[in-house]
Sequence to fold (366 residues):
Amino acid sequence: MASEGAARRKCALITGVTGQDGSYLAELLLDKGYIVHGMKRRASSYNHPRLEHIMDKSYPNSERFHLHYADLIDFGSLCTILRDTQPQEVYNLGAQSHVQVSFQLPQYTADASGVGVMNLLEAIRATGLEASMRVYQASTSELYGKVHAVPQDEETPFHPRSPYAVAKLYGFWAIKNYREAYNIYACNGILFNHESPRRGEIFVTRKVTMAAARIKLQKQECLYLGNIDAKRDWGHARDYVQCMWLMLQQEKPDDYVVATGQTTTVRRFVEMAFERAGLPIRWEGEAGSVAEMGVVASGPRSGETVVRIDPKYFRPAEVDLLLGDPAKAKRVLGWDPQQTSLEQLCNEMVDADIAMQEDPTAYIRF
Fold:
C-alpha cells in the first residue's frame, strides 16, 4: 500500500527555490504530501540558508525534498531536470527580481526574468510534458508601472517602468501565448509586493526592519532611503504562496492579481518598524525633500537622527503607486488576502531581525 500511495503522490518542481517565496512554497507543498524538487544555480558560496531547516532530517517530510543544479538561461539543464523529475506542477519563481539592480543589469535581467520563461515553456514541449504539467509563472505588479487605473486588476493596462518589469512583461505574454497556442495549463500570478523575515536584505521593507533592529541595538547609526512617499500594496509571502498553489488546482488555467487591496507609503512602514523597535520617530525638514529626516521622538535617545534621504536610491523612472484588486482571486480561488495584516507582518519582521542579531539562523523560526 505504501508504494501505491507514493505513486499517487504529487510531484512539483520549484525554480528559484532558494528565495523567500521558494522556501515558503516548499514548506506548503511538503505539508500537503508532495515530492518537491527545487532548482538552484551553481554558486561558489553557500546560497540556500532559507532551506537549511527543510533539509534537516528532523523536518517533517524532509526526505521528499530534493535540490538540483539548473538555470533558466540554460535550456539543456531545464530539459534534463524536467525529464528526470517528471513533475505535475512547475512553479517558476526564478528571476533577477530586484528593480533597481535591473537598471544596472538590463540584459541579464531580460535573459533570466523574460527569456528564461520561454526556455522553460520550450523545455516542457521538448520533453513532451505539455499535456501532463501545470505551470505557475511569478508575474509582478511592476507590470503596471505608470498606473492607468487605481486599483489595478487583471484588465488594467500595463506600463512597465524598469528593465525588470519589461522582462516580466515578456514572460507574462509567453505564458498566455503558450496557453493559447499549445493548450498548456499555465497561469500568471500578478503578485503585488509580498514580504517576510526571509525577504532579501536589499529590498526596502527588509532594509527598513533590519535597520530598525540594528539601530535599536546600536549596531548601525542611520537608515538611508530614496522615495519614502512611494505607495505599495504589501502582503505576507507565506499567504501569497497559498494563492500560487490554488491557481494550479482549478479546472482551467487563468491569470490572477494577488494583493491585499490596501496601499501604504514607505514612510508609514518606516514609522511602524521603528515604533516596534522602541524608537518612535517624527519627521523634520522639508517634506518630500532630501533634507527631510526621521528623528527619535521620545525616550532616552530622543532627538537622534535615524532616517535620512539619499538621492542615490531614487529610480530613473519611479513607480509611485501600486494597489491591487484581489476580487477575482477571492471569488474564484477562495483565497483570503487579509490573513496577515501589515502591522503583523512588520512586527514579525522587526522581531525576527532583532533575534537575528544574536543568532543569524533565527529567521527560520518565522
